[in-house]
Amino acid sequence: MGLVKHKWYRFILCTTVIASFIVCYLKLHSLSISKGPMSEHTLEYFLDKGTIQRKDAADIEWYHAANSKSKLTEALQGSAQMIEADVLLRGQDPKVPIMAHPPDNDSDITLQDFLKEVVKSDKGIKLDFKSLAAVSPSMTLLEEVRDQLQGPVWINADILPGPRGTATPLDPHVFLQEVAQKSENDVLSLGWTTGWDVDADNPGYSWEMVHQMEELCRSLKQPVTFPVRAALLHVSFSQFQWLLKQSDRYSLTVWTGKYDVLTVEDLLLYRQNFSKTRIYYDLLESQIKQFKGLPGYT
Ligand SMILES: *[C@@H]1O[C@H](CO)[C@@H](O)[C@H](O)[C@H]1NC(C)=O
Ligand SMILES: *[C@@H]1O[C@H](CO)[C@@H](O)[C@H](O)[C@H]1NC(C)=O
To answer: Do 147 and 270 fall into the same domain?
Structure first.
């Protein structure tokens, strides 16, 4: 009788242990499925929302420079999934983070008010930092609404000098130090300052530029996207091919200067040679339309 009881006890114990292992495994498994590879969690989110139909970063639409109350309202009502806006410190007191692009130094909307509106929507935001001084107070404001923000948050700054770049980049070490700890679930968008001259040969991104960037990003935990200037891409293919190979956390965000002369055919090389999850296109509406209509675009 005692032996039978003992056997039963062992049987129940074993079954419980095995069952917990299975539950644990399934939980981990579903977690990794729902998150996907790191560079894709923005796509995953909008796919879940049904605002994109497939995991293709070219299907993400951008709203630009939502740096005023009226622009933000328009952005929130529009179809773009991601809202891009610039952040700097107000020129006069109170010197709080505001939504503005230099040379402006004032705005009718502070970052705090901007975030207050964004939390009511399921759109994502890309905050483009134009001054180092704005970073720390902005990260504090962001922390205050973390629980309420639904969409992805991208934190952007130019942190290295790039081709023909004349603006001073934000100090990469200070920027990353202030941002990295407080944005574990964000996408870091880290770029080079650039320039473009219609009347000259415009050099592409050099090996030194991509090597420097990779060194800075290697130890980060977040997905990183590199904003790259569309008109320079055709002369920088080898460099970006190398860069994307260094980590599956890395992606590109192709952007354009308003007056750059861009041949959209040049972008096909990228579209065809990299996973569609790894290249975002933040271009003018007319350029996107033209790009998507090209014979080689699939
Ligand atoms: C802000 O910009 C205005 C207009 O360009 C300028 O007159 C003013 O001096 C600037 N203020 C600061 C504090 O830089
Ligand atoms: C890019 O992709 C195209 C089409 O798939 C292929 O023909 C070409 O060799 C690739 N180029 C490079 C540089 O990988």
So the answer is: yes
